[in-house]
Amino acid sequence: MFKKLSVLIPIYNEKNTIMDCLKAVLESDVGSMELEVIISDNNSNDGSKEILSSINDPRVKVLYRDTNNGKGANIKNALKEANGDLILFQDGDLEYSPKDYPVLIEPFLKFNADVVYGSRLTRAKVTRIVGFPNYIGNILLTFIMNMLFNKIFTDIATGYKVFKRDVIKNMEIISDGFEIEPEITSKISRNKKIRIFEVPITINSRGVD
User: Fold this and answer.
1) How far apart are the C-alpha atoms of 199 and 107, rounded to whole Å?
2) Using CA atoms, how far apart are residues 116 and 104, in angstroms rounded to an integer?
């Protein structure tokens, strides 16, 4: 049913992690699907561009932005090049493990999901304990979205979101910054025909020590 998975990796100044992240993505279990990886660099200035220029793999496409307009702009840049039946957002800092791909993909295969969120806050999988302010901020944002749209999300700010191609490609995304997270959630929540699932994921947050 699904022939190709597009993994979008928006990065900014990730020279210390991007190659390890890419290696983990390329070695991930995506079943019988073809894998397409699209890295969009948001005008890094730490040497990430030079590292990315050394990549020579037909499964990987690298895009470079001339200006840094935020995470949303970077995701939209990568999204334009995505051709997969499923499209997955992957941060480049290795907080999120590509070993969770089978868990994220399963609802599409078993339940005909349209969107799957990987939640960091169910505590069903290993979760690194991080600072209280970050936790409360995410809880409040998620609570507001649930109240507005009558949903039961646990983590709308998660970096792991997976979509059927038509769902995300047909969405008019306006946000250029981190506000892309509530924008996408609000738009899929308004559409009663979209089947949204949430699964627990492992998280090794960088956090504040």
Assistant:
1) 9
2) 6
Which residue's structure tokens are 């910054």? Answer: 177
The whole-angstrom separation of Cα 167 and Cα 169 is 6
How does strand 34-41 pair with strand 4-11? parallel
150: left (phi over 0), alpha (psi -120 to 50) or beta: left
What does the DSSP assignment read for the chain?
A: ---EEEEEEEESS-TTTHHHHHHHHHTS--TT-EEEEEEEE----SSHHHHHTT---TTEEEEE-SS---HHHHHHHHHTT---SEEEE--TTSSB-GGGHHHHHHHHHHH--SEEEEESSS-SS-B----HHHHHHHHHHHHHHHHHHT---S-TT-S-EEEEHHHHHTS-----STTHHHHHHHHHHH-TT--EEEEE--B------
Q: Which residue has the higher pLDDT, 112 or 129?
A: 112
Tokens of 20: 């390890």
At residue 31, φ and ψ (nearest 5 deg) are 65, -135
Q: Considering only CA atoms, which of 157, 158, 119 is closest in space to residue 141?
A: 157
Q: How far is CA 152 from the centre of its chain?
A: 20
Bridge partner list, 106: none
- Please give the Cα distance from 50 to 87 (Å, whole number): 26
pLDDT tens, position by position, 14-43: 999 999 999 999 999 999 999 999 999 999
